Amino acid sequence: MTTTVTSAAVTVTDIPHLDPVPAFTVLDERGPGGVPLIQLPSGHKVAHLTRYADVHKVLTDPASGRTETNVEDGPSFLPTVMPKELLLNLDAPHHARIRGFVATDYSAAGTERLRPVIGEVVDEGIRRLRSSASPDLFTDLLDRVPVTVNAHFLGFPVEDVPYFRPSSRIVQIASHEDVPDLVQHFYRVYGYVEDLVTGVRPVVPGGLIDRFRADRDRAEPPLDDAELTGIFFGSLLGGDQNVVSVLTKSVYALLAAPALWRRLADDPAIAPRLAEELIRLIPLGAISAFPRIAGRDLETTAGVVAQGTVVYPDAFAANRDPEAFPDPLTVDPDREPAKRHLQFGYGMHHCMGAALARMEIVTVLTRLAQEFPNLALAVDPAEVPWDNGTVLRRPTSLPVRW
């Protein structure tokens, strides 16, 4: 029995395996302020906020920070701590200093110069697809685009990709089953970035690594090697593995729901709106945010979150709040939402690579629709294999025909 979705109105629940199994346990109890509780893999019981207004409040509250959760035995979805220099672990005022340094280059205007590079990489993938006896959209195209674009953007040699990239995948899966192995892969990637920053390994002239090293005095005080390594470690992982995950799941969703693909093929100009709708609905991995500690008492629709409470602002649930997005589970490229989705975060921890990710996803959707209007999965959607991890969750193969 096929599971392919053909109805005109498609909901995300119609598409096999698209939604993850939650990485937390829902508890039948509430915290002191009446807020529902969940239990994290670390064993901590934390407040669970799911309404758009509440999640938005936490994400935009400069007093609700990340730093104190990134400690040994801290409340976490991850089996280990991460370097404190990563932007996602920094709070005010340190976050503003780093963010201000990188903001221009990661903005929509700053990444626009990569549009021709993205076009060339996608065209190369399309040629590879056309020449393949057994075309696989994931291996021939989708898995190659973000890492190649990221190499141009950051300025690391493309030849280095086989060295660090298998470890990047394992780091983002973040399995609790073999923590020593995970740590070993983590430091392989972190050490690689550190070598680029300190000059042990060569970088491509004119890339961000080269420019930021030379321009570090623009920050006050100047950025040190650890801070630069933190910036580029996040970019190396996020600009590759995270984009591959969202891009692959977006294309999979369209092909598993042929009515959606037909809509795009008939009008490729809707790609930006359709991409935004898919990004809203599809979580990156099994989590949609990292825990925070409330820096003050927060009034929420679920009750009062007291200062010092660990909170999970569930952006995945908030993006499906019917008060913010009517008929929230329907994939509607004509949606004109009154709210901006929270998939890239909000406030100071808004994903700095969001503009580049959007450009890559929209470009791929547009070009595929133009080149392969009759594109379809060559297998039943339920048979597509997946990687399942904490931060990384995506199909690992998309056999196609046209």
TrEMBL record:
Belongs to the cytochrome P450 family. The gene is cyp158a2. Gene3D superfamilies: Cytochrome P450. Coiled coil: none annotated. Keywords: Heme, Iron, Metal-binding, Monooxygenase, Oxidoreductase. It comes from the Bacteria. InterPro entries: Cyt_P450 (IPR001128), Cyt_P450_B (IPR002397), Cyt_P450_CS (IPR017972), Cyt_P450_sf (IPR036396). PROSITE patterns: CYTOCHROME_P450. It comes from Streptomyces virginiae. Signal peptide: none annotated. This is Biflaviolin synthase CYP158A2.
